[in-house]
Design a protein that fits this description.
Blueprint: E1 11-15, H1 18-32, E2 38-43, H2 46-58, E3 65-71, H3 76-87, E4 93-98, H4 107-110, E5 114-118, E6 124-125, H5 144-149, H6 152-168, H7 172-189, H8 193-206, H9 213-223
Parallel strand pairs: 1-4, 1-5, 2-3, 3-4
Antiparallel strand pairs: 5-6
C-alpha cells in the first residue's frame, strides 16, 4: 500500500519521477479517499511557499484536505517558510511534497516528514532496497542498511564496488544520489539529525562540477555513525 489509509502521516516527502509520483497518489486517492479534496501547488519562490501556508491554515480543522506540492526550489529561506507550515499542522491536513533529487531537505523538515520513494515500476519501496533503474544490473549495488552497520574499513570496500558500477551505468550520478537518498532515509528514521547534515552537504558537493563522488563517499564512510540492522 502506498500510504497507511488508517493512519496518515501529516506530511510525506516523496522521491521519484514527478509524473509517476502524481499518478500513484491520484490512484491511491481514488481508492482510499475519493471524497477528499486535493489541491496542487508548485513552489519556486518564497512567496509561493507563504501562499501555501496561508491557504492551508485557512482550512477548517478536522476537515480532511490533501495538498500535493511540487518543491522546485530548495533555497533555505523557502524551506524555512515551508517548515512553518509543517510545524503546526491543522487536524485533517496532509501534505504530499515531491522532492527532486537535486534538493536536499533541511534536517528540521526531514524530521517532520515521512520519506517515501516511488519507483518507475510503480512499487513503493524503502529507499534502502531500491535498485537503480538505469544500472546495467537489476540489483541493489550497495545495501544502505548493511553499509551503515559496518565499520569504516568495510564501508570503503563497498564504495569501490559502487564506483565500479557507476562507470558502467548510463547515469552514474543517479547511482550516487540513489545511494545517498537511501542513507538519508535510514538516518532520518533513526533521528540522526546531525548526521543528516553530512548527507545534505554531500549531495550539494556532488552536484558541483569537477567533484569526486568517491572522495565524498569515503568521507561519509569515516564519519557516519554505525547503526545496527533492525
Amino acid at each position: 500500500m502506498l500510504f497507511n489509509a488508517a493512519q496518515l502521516h501529516h506530511a510525506y516527502a516523496l522521491r521519484g519521477e514527478y509524473d509517476i509520483v502524481c499518478t500513484r497518489i491520484f490512484e491511491w486517492k481514488s481508492t482510499h479517499r475519493p471524497e477528499t479534496p486535493i489541491h496542487e501547488y508548485i513552489i519556486t519562490n518564497i512567496e509561493e511557499a507563504r501562499a501555501l501556508g496561508a491557504y492551508a491554515h485557512q482550512k477548517q480543522a478536522g476537515t480532511e484536505t490533501f495538498f500535493l506540492v511540487a518543491l522546485k526550489e530548495g533555497r533555505i529561506d523557502i524551506q524555512n517558510t515551508l517548515l512553518k507550515t509543517l510545524e503546526e499542522p491543522a487536524q485533517g491536513i496532509h501534505f504530499f511534497i515531491h522532492i527532486p533529487d537535486h534538493i536536499t531537505l533541511l534536517p528540521t523538515i526531514a524530521s517532520r516528514v515521512e520519506l517515501v520513494t516511488i519507483t518507475r515500476t510503480g512499487d513503493t519501496q524503502n529507499p534502502s532496497s531500491e535498485s537503480d533503474q538505469e544500472s546495467t544490473e537489476d540489483e541493489v549495488i550497495i545495501d544502505a542498511e548493511t553499509f551503515l552497520s559496518e565499520a569504516p574499513s568495510a564501508r570503503l570496500a563497498h564504495i569501490k564496488k559502487l564506483k565500479d558500477a557507476s562507470e558502467l551505468s548510463k547515469s552514474s550520478t543517479g547511482i550516487y544520489y540513489q545511494f545517498l537518498s537511501s542513507i538519508e532515509h535510514i538516518l532520518g528514521a533513526h533521528r540522526h539529525h546531525a548526521s543528516l547534515a553530512h548527507i545534505y552537504r554531500a549531495k550539494e558537493y556532488m552536484s558541483e562540477s569537477g567533484s569526486s563522488p568517491k572522495m565524498i563517499l569515503e568521507y561519509l564512510a569515516m564519519h557516519l555513525p554505525i547503526i545496527a540492522k533492525d
